[in-house]
Specification:
The complex is a heterotrimer of chains A (about 400), B (about 300) and C (about 300). With about 300 residues, chain B is mostly helical. Helix content of chain B is about 70%, strand content about 0%. Chain B is built from twelve helices and no strands. Chain B starts with a helix and ends with a helix. By secondary structure, chain C is mainly α. In chain C, helix 5 crosses helix 8, helix 6 crosses helix 8 and helix 8 packs antiparallel against helix 11. The chains are: A alpha/beta (about 400), B mainly alpha (about 300), C mainly alpha (about 300).
Chain lengths: ~400, ~300, ~300
């Protein structure tokens, strides 16, 4: 990469811009003229502006590394892909609802950048991961889908997904992508506590704080852990934090049993209405959901979202391209958008952690105002991303057996 | 349609006995709708319950729940909940229906009937939330009790339990009972009461010898209807809680649309179990209804 | 239940009654009218019932019409302005109207023909009309999504014909109530005689049905229409599981992103429905001796 003439040119331009020799508009026009896509250009300019205070040389290097992360890097022809996608005419999505992790903004960015219509009914947008696979198998209409990690692996096994390594492949941890390219994680959320600070007067930072006697009937999860992903991860996170591990969900079941016996656990679902009305005062749910509730409540009540200190698990979602997609190039272009800096930052706007978060953070590309709306980054250091599907299945089976005992003990 | 009329002028007027073909044609839409949207799903349910969802082979494994006590828990809960809410809804509903009849004010009757038909349809998530807002841990009435010094939740009461669900189910069980019992109660002719009084019967004797035998059939048949409704109800329980009070309709929906488990064969088997119980209730009710129309026909 | 002494009152009325023997009828009416004071126990029962039914609605209002700190109507306006509100309400209205028309147009002629020409089919049709009770919506949806869903050769769900499934499902749900209402009305009228009379005057069967039978059973038709309409408007289970954004489903969803607005809308729709039913009851009151009876929710 060091010898790439394109990057050298960008390095040059970046230095010129940082030292003031090149105006911003001219910088942008030149970059575009080099064939870089808009997201890449925006990223480069942001990187240069951030690094401009340091030194022009650093800015140049920052520009180069930003460009290296950009779609139009060595060997890959973005323009050709865009042209091919446009000629296909449209793209069909399944299981991608607009109100979920800011997907509406991503739809808007797609339309404004490429102008390719997105098909797929709102009903199909609400499909569960299993239904998405069914739809790919039996209707042959979808090109792309957003599924849970377990279903992504299943899709590869059943030959329903097509391999594609998007241009940011290197940024993504090995555990978060399929070695052959059949699926790739796009974002994740971690288990968090959403606390109604108007009603709860004690500080809550960790699992054991939930056992405090002042929290009678206050703590809730969103549904049955043997059926709903969110609640399942709540129990599993409790296990990891209380002496268990990914392979041992027993301590999690014990913890919730303790919570139940103490009278602190409520059977009310931790959904928007119950959290906003104050029925559930401490909700153990995905961070992006908790943050969305906080925004919804808008101060009535005040909700604070924090990540439990001793342990929290994160479950990623994955983007898949259908094996026999009617518009394969559009599907690939969609993935390019999802994994581009602009796409990934939009996920962050929806409070989900984009899969390239570490890279973006190291490059200083996280806008401070977005970062301020989320729990502090250092709270996330103990979060474990779970991508080993065999472990998920094993834990689910163990939970199903053990949870019945908890429920029956009432 | 005109062919028959033109071919043989018999002088007979166009009677209703003619044009059998047209009659069958008229029955066709009904048959089609029922066949496509009622019978086909029922058959697929039966078929799916004895075939594995994964392999498509014949199997009785989906019915394994009949042998596992823990798997029968949803049925036990559903039965308990339905019995409790039928008892509550039935008794209170009967009382209210009689109060309406005794009040003899048509305006009360009007308000009660119309409100009942709306309340009976209020079931589901809106009702669930209304009761969470009333009797939930942070609910209005809960807090009223707290102010009065009674801590409901510390004392063991929970809205999210069979007892709590019974109270919620009553919101539409009572109106249903009222609507179904009003006609028989109004058909109790006052002259019967007066005749009994003239013959020297006390109120208790009148109730025992006249009212109860006549009303027994409609009351029992209404209770069966209430029971069947409670057993099959899904929307309200779904809106209130999942996981801590396991009920059969919730289990069924989890098996078809849950994130983690997806087994339509098992769902079908559970559904057949549910339907069998409903069939008993409804069948019993139909039998009773046929007997009672004799007494209360005007 | 009212303890008035009969003999005492009779004595007061005796003289005028003997003098004006022809007014005996009016006399009885006057006597009973004197006992129209609502008995105390009935008032208590009705009062308690009012509390039970209104408090949850009040609790909903407290949450819905508030910013969290103060009373405000703002959530209602925000809710009414929400895009989804209009589209889902229109969608539900559309489905409700189609279902109502279907129920009337298909069930009425069928019931008429069964009554008139195919009495042997009566028990079959009655069994069929009871079947939807045995197969509650949750099970019906599972069956429908299996037979016509993603995994089946006849995949309606992913095509533009998908709404047909919903209408079919609603028709099946309404069938028991609609059939019962229309059938009751038909049996109250001497259909055979009417039809034969019309035929002997030269009317075609269609003409007979439209001009003679339909007006005679008009109240049964109104009742069936009301039942079909409210069922379709309030149905949640089928729409939710098949993924249609009808009004009840919308109310559930809106609670997820606009909780206060959602509850405000729920309350408002409750009272609007009640007003509608009151209006219809007023219309039906014109024909004495008939009642609109609601069968029940699921």
């Amino acid at each position: 990469m060091a010898n790439d003439p394109l990057l050298a040119r960008i390095d040059e331009l970046g230095s010129a811009f940082a030292s003031g020799q090149l105006g911003r508009r001219q910088f942008m026009k030149t970059l575009l003229g080099l064939g870089l896509g808009l997201p890449a250009v925006a990223a480069i300019i942001a990187a240069c502006s951030a690094a401009a205070t340091a030194s022009p040389a650093a800015a140049g290097a920052a520009a180069a590394s930003a460009a290296a992360a950009a779609p139009a890097a060595s060997g890959f022809d973005m323009n050709a892909l865009v042209a091919a996608a446009k000629s296909e005419g449209s793209i069909y999505q399944t299981g991608i609802p607009p109100e979920w992790v800011n997907y509406q903004a991503i739809f808007d960015l797609w339309k404004s950048t490429y102008g390719i219509p997105i098909n797929g009914t709102s009903t199909e947008g609400e499909y569960t991961s299993a239904q998405e696979l069914d739809s790919i198998k039996n209707t042959g209409k979808p090109d792309v889908g957003d599924v849970g990690i377990a279903v992504a692996v299943l899709g590869k096994q059943q030959g329903l997904t097509a391999p594609y390594k998007n241009s940011h492949w290197a940024d993504i941890p090995d555990t978060a992508k399929d070695a052959d390219g059949y699926w790739c994680c796009n974002y994740w959320g971690a288990q968090a506590f959403a606390i109604n600070t108007d009603a709860v007067k004690i500080p809550i930072n960790d699992w054991n704080d939930l056992l405090d006697p002042s929290l009678k009937s206050a703590v809730g999860i969103d549904g049955d852990p043997t059926k709903a992903n969110d609640s399942f991860f709540a129990v599993w996170s409790a296990a990891v934090a209380n002496g268990g591990s990914l392979d041992n969900i027993g301590p999690g079941i014990d913890f919730f049993n303790k919570l139940l016996q103490s009278g602190n656990l409520t059977a009310a679902r931790a959904n928007t209405a119950n959290v906003v009305s104050g029925e559930v005062k401490v909700a153990i749910i995905w961070d992006y959901l908790g943050l969305a509730y906080r925004d919804k409540a808008n101060g009535a009540p005040n909700i604070k979202v924090t990540i439990p200190a001793s342990g929290s698990l994160a479950s990623p979602y994955a983007d898949i391209v259908a094996a026999k997609a009617p518009h394969p190039n559009a599907g690939r272009l969609w993935q390019e958008l999802i994994y581009s800096d602009a796409g990934q930052l939009l996920f962050l706007g929806g409070y989900a952690h984009p899969i390239r978060y570490a890279v973006l953070n190291a490059a200083g590309k996280i806008p401070p105002d977005v970062a301020a709306k989320m729990p502090a980054a250092d709270l996330y250091t103990k979060v474990q991303l779970v991508t080993d599907v065999s472990k998920i299945t094993a834990a689910e089976t163990a939970l199903a057996a053990g949870w019945k005992i908890v429920v029956n003990s009432q | 349609m005109s062919a028959a009329g033109v071919a043989r002028p018999t002088g007979k007027p166009a009677t209703v006995e003619g044009r059998r073909g047209l009659a069958v044609l008229v029955l066709l839409p009904f048959t089609a709708l029922v066949g496509l949207f009622l019978l086909a799903p029922t058959v697929s349910l039966l078929w799916g319950s004895v075939h594995s969802a994964r392999t498509g082979q014949f199997t009785l494994a989906n019915y394994s729940y009949l042998g596992h006590p823990l798997d029968l828990l949803p049925f036990a809960n559903s039965v308990e909940l339905s019995l409790a809410s039928t008892a509550l809804g039935g008794l209170v509903g009967l009382l209210i229906a009689q109060a309406i009849v005794s009040s003899r004010r048509p305006v009360i009757q009007e308000i009660a009937t119309t409100f009942s038909s709306v309340a009976a349809n209020f079931a589901g998530v809106p009702l669930a939330f209304a009761f969470i807002a009333t009797l939930g841990a942070g609910g209005l009435v809960t807090r009223l009790f707290l102010d009065a010094g009674i801590d409901l939740y510390n004392g063991g009461f929970k809205l999210y339990s069979v007892l709590g669900l019974t109270i919620v189910y009553a919101y539409w069980e009572i109106p249903l009972m009222v609507l179904v019992m009003l006609p028989p109660l109004q058909a109790m002719k006052p002259s019967w009461r007066e005749a009994a009084e003239i013959l020297g019967a006390s109120r208790w004797q009148y109730l025992r010898a006249v009212a109860v035998p006549i009303l027994a059939t409609p009351v029992i048949s209404s209770l069966l209807l209430l029971y069947a409704n409670a057993f099959g109800a899904f929307a309200t329980a779904y809106g209130l809680t999942t996981g801590f009070v396991s009920l059969v309709p919730i289990q069924i929906s989890n098996l078809v649309s849950g994130d983690i488990t997806f087994d339509p064969g098992q769902a079908d088997a559970l559904a057949v179990g549910l339907a069998a119980i409903m069939a008993l209730c409804i069948g019993g009710r139909a039998l009773l209804e046929r007997r009672s129309t004799r007494w209360l026909a005007r | 239940m009212s303890g008035g002494s009969m003999t005492g009152e009779a004595t007061e009325e005796t003289l005028p009654a003997i003098v004006a023997g022809a007014h005996a009828e009016r006399l009885v009416r006057r006597r009973t009218r004197r006992r129209t004071r609502t008995p105390a126990w009935a008032a208590v029962v009705l009062g308690a019932a009012a509390v039970y039914f209104l408090v949850p609605l009040y609790a909903t209002a407290v949450f819905g019409f508030s910013t969290g700190k103060a009373f405000t109507l703002q959530p209602l306006f925000a809710g009414l302005a929400d895009d989804g509100f209009h589209s889902s309400l229109l969608l539900s209205l559309g489905y409700a109207i189609v279902t109502t028309c279907l129920a009337l147009v298909v069930v009425a002629p069928t019931a008429y023909l069964v009554e008139l020409r195919f009495p042997g089919l009566r028990s079959t049709i009655e069994f069929v009309s009871i079947l939807p009770f045995v197969i509650p919506p949750i099970i019906l949806t599972v069956g429908l999504s299996t037979v016509y869903g993603i995994r089946s050769p006849v995949n309606l769900i992913s095509s533009e014909w998908a709404p047909v499934l919903l209408v079919g499902g609603y028709f099946v749900l309404t069938l028991p109530f609609a059939f019962r209402a229309i059938d009751n009305a038909l049996r109250a009228v001497d259909v055979r005689m009417l039809s034969e009379a019309a035929a002997s005057l030269g009317a075609s069967p269609v003409h007979t049905f439209l001009r003679v039978i339909v007006p005679s059973i008009s109240l049964g038709l109104v009742s069936a229409a009301l039942l079909a309409f409210t069922t379709a408007m309030g149905e949640f289970t089928i729409a939710a599981l098949l993924g249609y954004p009808t009004f009840p489903v919308y109310l559930l969803n809106v609670n997820a992103y606009l909780p206060r607005e959602g509850e405000a809308l729920v309350l408002v729709s409750f009272f609007i429905t009640w007003a509608g039913v009151l209006a219809l009851a007023a219309v039906a009151r014109r024909a004495p001796g008939t009642q609109i009876v609601r069968g029940g929710p699921m």
